[in-house]
Amino acid sequence: MQMAIKKGIVVILGVFFQIIFSLFIYLFLIENFAIIQIFYSIIGFLLVLALVRNSRSYSYTLPWIIILILVPLLGTILYLIIGKNKLRSKTLKRIVKSTEESQKYLIQDEKIREEFQENGKIKYISDYTGFPVTKNNDVSYYPLGEEAFEAMLEELKKAEKFIFFEYFIVAPGKMWSSILDILKEKAQNGLDVRVMYDDFGCVATLPNFYPQELEKFGIKCVVFNKLNPIAGVFMNNRDHRKILVIDGKVAFSGGINIADEYINVNSKYGHWKDNGFKVSGDAVWNYTVMFLTMWSAFRKEDEDFTKFKFDFKDKQKENGFVVPYGETPLDDEITGEDVYLNIINQANKYVYIFTPYLIIDTDMINSLNLAAKRGVDVRIVIPGIPDKKIVYTVSESYLETLVKSGVKIYKYTPGFVHSKVFVSDDHVATCGTINMDYRSLYLHFECGCYFEDVDVIQDIKKDLDETIKKSHEVTKEEALPKLLKGTWQALLRLVAPLM
């Protein structure tokens, strides 16, 4: 906690001085107040027009529009410091360049392309994420973090060539120490071991010198988007992905981070309901390229990614379509949300959803409501015990309109739900790191995996069925907020996209 406070103070002071400096210029020229006010009003108005013209979601841009209209001076300063931070970020520019260079490794098998050309959901992912659609995979689903953890340890011990590890949160404890012991051993045996974690995600768990500690053991380390007082406290574009690739043969992803609460050790929020999955087959290459693309933005050491590719020919089985895909805030597509919307909009019988945070825009609200109204069984499982009370209050603000339309909301009575899962019609599913909130959908680097006609879909459906049995269905009376709480929720919803 002391580490988090120290880092936070430095970054907050940096932003504070940026704002004070801007205001100082304004005060220094106070005698020209009218001219300055007109200048900032014009800039603010132009920014509003740009937001209106380019917006993919007014739920996200509305708060900025209101601020820019009501307080043009402060709004313009805040927007230039916070809202358009990515335009001046060297880190993000490097990621854009690395992404462009890595596209040559993402080659779609033409025979498989012919199979999905008439399939709109898969075609969208293929066309707009650039990640190949694969078959020839074996997939295992783990309904709890501790089960995924045991499988991860088992596969890590088998590693012979390399281990790629990318997680939002890494925290000292049983989970990390067990993994780290294996990573140290493998690195000492000459394997290429690489660890990447997000600086903000680990602000309270790892010290600034931790990369040097790992390097002493032969473990290469990258810290994503280090907190910087010049860049600002709202360095919103974080690496929220969870990826583990071993020898190019096996990849793990899902909801779990590397901290003990994710495996129900010392959880402060009751039973921690999370998930993970393992892929072995051609789909592993998508995760390998995803990792190497991000790694190469910080450490340029791989001239050819293909040396990490494993040939699965005649080693797996045909098992439906599997498409690991990346979500990035650096393009014009809101891929994560669009994948979710396509599943909802094309559902015929049911859509079941796990999400820890239900902070949704008008497109998602309308899709969920319309699906329920046309007779689709729409069920959403949210936490019974929240990890962030203010965020949970915002989530609850959406319950009234959803429940009135026939969407069934379940609160997981034993504790906290952290899984991010959609499953529909015993036919399609997606699992990964993408929450149903503004940060995941608009600001973070995320990853998901789309499954269609894959055996594991039945396991995912079973997990949701069993979880719903342990959950409390929210009634219409419970969904209706009282006056004061409803007012507070409305205010929070207004600023939620900026949080």
Question: Short description, anyone?
Answer:
With 499 residues, the protein is of the alpha/beta class. It has helices spanning 2-28, 33-54, 58-70, 72-83, 90-102, 110-116, 120-129, 145-157, 174-188, 210-216, 284-296, 335-345, 362-373, 389-396, 399-404, 438-443, 456-469, 476-479, 483-495, and strands spanning 137-142, 162-167, 192-198, 220-224, 242-246, 250-254, 271-273, 276-281, 321-327, 350-354, 377-383, 408-412, 415-417, 421-424, 428-432, 446-452, 471-473. The protein contains 19 helices and 17 strands.
Which features characterize this protein?
499 residues, alpha/beta, Endonuclease, Chain A, eight-stranded mixed beta sheet, seven-stranded mixed beta sheet, 18% strand
Architecture blueprint of SSEs:
Elements lengths: L1 H27 L4 H22 L3 H13 L1 H12 L6 H13 L7 H7 L3 H10 L7 E6 L2 H13 L4 E6 L6 H15 L3 E7 L11 H7 L3 E5 L17 E5 L3 E5 L16 E3 L2 E6 L2 H13 L24 E7 L7 H11 L4 E5 L7 H12 L3 E7 L5 H8 L2 H6 L3 E5 L2 E3 L3 E4 L3 E5 L5 H6 L2 E7 L3 H14 L1 E3 L2 H4 L3 H13 L4
Parallel strand pairs: 2-3, 3-4, 7-13, 10-11, 11-12
Antiparallel strand pairs: 1-8, 2-5, 5-6, 6-8, 9-16, 10-14, 12-17, 14-15, 15-16
